[in-house]
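Most newcomers find our protein records easier to grasp once they have seen one. Each record describes a single protein and holds just a pair of labelled lines. A learned vocabulary of local backbone shapes supplies the integers on the structure line. Nothing more is needed to start thinking about how sequence determines fold. The record below serves as our worked example for the rest of this section.
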Amino acid sequence: MTPGAWWNLLRLGKFAVHPARLPMAAAVTLATPVNSTLGAIQRVVWGGALRDATFHGPPVFIIGHWRSGTTMLHELMVMDERLSSPSTFQCFAPHHFLLSEWFFLKFFKWLLPNQRPMDNMATGFDRPQEDEFALMNLGVPSPYRRIAFPNQPPPDLEYLDTETLPESLREPWSRAIENFLKAVSYRTERPLVVKSPTHTGRVETLAKIFPGAKFIHLTRDPRALFPSTMRLWAGLDQVQALQLPNGEGLDRYVIDCFTRMYDAFHRQRESIDPANLIDVRYEDLVSDPMAEVEAIYRRLRLGDFGAVRDALADWVETSHVGYRPNRHELPEHQETLIRQHWGDYFDRYGY
């Protein structure tokens, strides 16, 4: 973050930083002027090239609620060397990654844990990452600002449905994501596969920004989706928050986000060319990833699946064999709650 974005985040959270998290806050504070300086250098060196840069084909957006398999599919898609994705470093240093990425990849890999806390998936600066983190770090309004102050009312939930934003807000958001992804495309020189659950209720806006964009929408049984998402946010709050999370209202937050996203998605998907959107069930992806990815390539016309078949087969044989998703016990009162609020999702997707 730059000093301005960091100050705005602190102000939004009413500066309610817990004393135990002051070292974290101090580290971020010290990094912000470095980010600004490196960002200024990048603009001087690459500004003209980025203004003239173009995309290497329409992006593919992986969407769907958190814990519906979006990360797994993202990792599978970028095994295709003809495709690329925003990396973790690019998303956490969006101001200056063209300048600084090589240095951090060489000397600072140790800064990240080897696995994500919520599901033990591998991490690394060079691995694919959600571009929503880049938007947040650029100072763009994002629901992910809640992660810093989970005990405060969640901010920016209106950005889960960008089509309802006034043009004065939607236009700078659109410009920010376009500029960031253009910089990533300039670096990789390949078509992009972009993944963020927050984009689920933004498909119409994204299709306007990126003509011809394609969308892969994942679904999952809500009886597993809900407790898994609760675990996700609880884990992130413990590790990344500037407060000691109290967990109050987390269930209502999960329900509210889901409802906002899917009210928007089900309304907006009618504007998307059916040839550019495919629904994929998490349960099918986990059961037979080869068949599901091949179906995605065929439906969205992503090129010759044979070029990536061997890489996927190797992953299935070495990493996926014996994989079993976590089992989640859902108390009766929570199942009643999600059936009440998510009934349309249960019916629409056959759960």
